[in-house]
Amino acid sequence: MNEIKVGIVDDHAIVRQGLRAMLDREPDLRVVGDAGAEGPAITMVDQTRPDVVLLDLKLTIDGGCEGLDLCGKVADRYPESRILVLTTFADEWLVREAIRQGAKGYVVKDVDLTELVRAIRAVYRGESAFDSHSASAVVSWLRREPDAEATGQITPREREILCLLAQGLSNIAIGKRLYISDTTVKFHVTNLMHKLGARRRAEAVYAASKLGLI
Fold first, then answer.
1. Are residues 100 and 135 in the same domain?
2. Position with higher pLDDT, 84 vs 155
3. Are 52 and 102 in contact (CB under 8 A)?
4. Is the pLDDT of residue 26 over 90?
5. pLDDT at 13
6. Is the Cα dihedral 109, 115, 121, 125 positive or negative?
7. φ and ψ at residue 158, rounded to 5 degrees
8. pLDDT(138) > 60
9. Measured between alpha carbons, how far is 31 from 40 in angstroms, rounded to an integer?
10. Are residues 131 and 153 in the same domain?
């Protein structure tokens, strides 16, 4: 069983301590660091390189959603550290923006330990993970009116790749499945992201779902 290194970012010390105590009891999880603000969080990720970062979106008592900005910075600088948002609210805007900033999953803090651990493992495997609250917000987002022009720009091959992206497959795995090189897959994925106005693979998948492409 591969060990999954976890980093925790939350402004409440007692939350960080509680999460550490619970997660360290799991045989395949090890908390390698925690932080309560953006600066220390960047340092923690840089020094420990966690596989999964549990990130709260509210990092100051009187602030808004500072964690969204931090989410984007970590995703850009440390793409190997996948981000799982663990926060209090799950409205559509927050879920959408977290995905846009690079989050791979989103769960609210009333989730039970079993579901949280399952989400951590899913994100580690490169899959998406949402609890029932955030999943409802995603569904609401995807039910918006599709853009027919964007739909018409997607080729049959790109649609095949989109379906495999939605399953969480890597470029190499997609290439093996379709008998093409991973370089060719990367070319198609880049084109897809451009056509769908997405900056990240997860965002492209959601945009494609919204358009009825997958």
1. yes
2. 84
3. no
4. yes
5. 94
6. negative
7. -65, -35
8. yes
9. 16
10. no
State the total domains in the chain. 2
Q: Order of strands across the sheet with 29-35?
A: 29-35, 4-9, 52-55, 82-87, 105-108, 129-130
Where in the sequence is the domain holding 47, given as residue range(s)?
Answer: 4-141
Is the pTM higher than 0.70? The answer reads no
| pLDDT score, position 145 | 45
CATH number of the domain that residue 174 is part of: 1.10.10.10
pLDDT per residue over 36-64, tens digit each? 999 999 999 999 999 999 999 887 765 55
Q: How many residues make up the chain in this entry?
A: 214
Q: Is the pLDDT of residue 159 over 60?
A: yes
Distance set, CA 156 to CA 153, 159, 162, 180, 199 (Å): 10, 5, 10, 15, 21
Strand, coil or helix: what is 25?
coil
Cβ–Cβ < 8 Å for 52, 26? no
Shared domain check, 65 and 82:
yes
